[in-house]
Description:
Elements: H1 2-8, E1 37-40, E2 45-48
Antiparallel strand pairs: 1-2
Amino acid sequence: MEDILLEYTKEYNFPIVKCNDFGHKIINSTIPIGVDIKIDSDNETVEIIEQFLKEK
């Protein structure tokens, strides 16, 4: 599946996040839709750039 995805997206320049562990009893994190984030694949970190839950 990974090879097919990479073949079909090779002309684009956007990140693809892959997760080998999924399902129950796994620590999961979510990335809200529409939020600006920084993905550092070298350090395996994801940082939310835009504060999406603004205080009133």
